[in-house]
Amino acid sequence: MQVLDNAPLAPLTTLRLGGPARRLVTAHTDDEVVAAVRAADAAGEPLLVLGGGSNLVISDAGFDGTVLRIATRGFALDGADLELAAGEVWAEAVARTVVEGLAGIEFLAGIPGSAGATPVQNVGAYGQEVSETVTEVVAYDRVAGETVTLANADCSFSYRHSRFKADPERYVVLRVRFGLTDAAGQSSPVKYAEVAKGLGVGIGDRVDLTKAYEKVLALRAGKGMVLDAADHDTWSAGSFFTNPVLTAEQYAAFAARLGELTAPAYPAPDGCTKTSAAWLIDRAGFTKGYGGGAATLSTKHTLALTNRGAATTEDLLALAREVRDGVRAAFGVELVNEPVMVGVAL
């Protein structure tokens, strides 16, 4: 393990924001991860687990405790069954499954971050979520003091949520196992209208696996959602707000405020309706590139809040609050942040 005191955290996040960690521990094996967690817990030390840093907003003051950076590696295939170490780079792992001709996570191409974070957030994009293919999650249970294996049904997956996100102080993900599909070089069924249109196919069709992967990469790049150090539109945490899921009562109130506008609406569980956060932000007057300071909305996508190079975390949060409050005033809908907040809150 590598241990550093007063270590900068901003370079370890895709936003390039946040103050230092009092102590930064980098673990390269599962045993090192568990040892570091046990040591912090035994000492009563605050602990922050860091993977790819793509879904974190860290306070300008930093983190007064131990930050555990998981740098484990491991990509193992047994037929169509895949096991990834938590520290594997997600985008690289997806690319490898496509080369192997396996479908199931190809529409999650180009998403930054580590494999271990994917079940926590139930990462999803373009009509696909990891919950569809995750079979097991191996994690260290800080309450039980032992390593446990949780089946998919035990992970409580829902939209951008899971058992791990609901109880963030309990589990540290070590490995994630997926059941992929050998579909003779074909993709999973296309579920997302933008992807279907780009590929010239219908919803439910399958296409060449590589073409599906490349189309998603192109779509993400066009929205500034593929990391590029030279492009400040990618200095973000991806989608900053989740798409609101409204109860029947909430949706009726929302619809009454729309007037002649027609908002995107998609069926959600329990009689709810999901609408588009990006649509709400844009229609509330926050267009691409909005903001005159060091933090602005992306010039490519209204759902990403970006660091233009000299921003602070407080600059970013001020913009996030302005957008959230503006959407609430315009439509009566409360936007909820998707990134994890460390030492700060909206």
From TrEMBL:
Main location, first listed in the record: cytoplasm
Annotated catalytic residues: 160, 239 (proton donor), 338
EC assignment: 1.3.1.98
Function according to Swiss-Prot or TrEMBL: Cell wall formation.
Xref: SUPFAM superfamilies: FAD-binding/transporter-associated domain-like (SSF56176), Uridine diphospho-N-Acetylenolpyruvylglucosamine reductase, MurB, C-terminal domain (SSF56194)
GO molecular function, one term: UDP-N-acetylmuramate dehydrogenase activity
Name the record gives this protein: UDP-N-acetylenolpyruvoylglucosamine reductase
Domain FAD-binding PCMH-type per the UniProt entry, residue ranges: 17-183
Pathway assignment: Cell wall biogenesis; peptidoglycan biosynthesis
Gene name for this UniProt entry: murB
Reaction catalysed by this enzyme: UDP-N-acetyl-alpha-D-muramate + NADP(+) = UDP-N-acetyl-3-O-(1-carboxyvinyl)-alpha-D-glucosamine + NADPH + H(+)
Subcellular location as annotated: Cytoplasm
Cofactor(s) named in the record: FAD
Coiled coil: none
One Pfam family matching this protein: MurB_C
Keywords attached to this entry: Cell cycle, Cell division, Cell shape, Cell wall biogenesis/degradation, Cytoplasm, FAD, Flavoprotein, NADP, Oxidoreductase, Peptidoglycan synthesis
Family the UniProt entry places it in: Belongs to the MurB family.
InterPro entries reported for this sequence: FAD-bd_PCMH, FAD-bd_PCMH-like_sf, FAD-bd_PCMH_sub1, FAD-bd_PCMH_sub2, MurB, MurB_C, MurB_C_sf, Oxid_FAD_bind_N
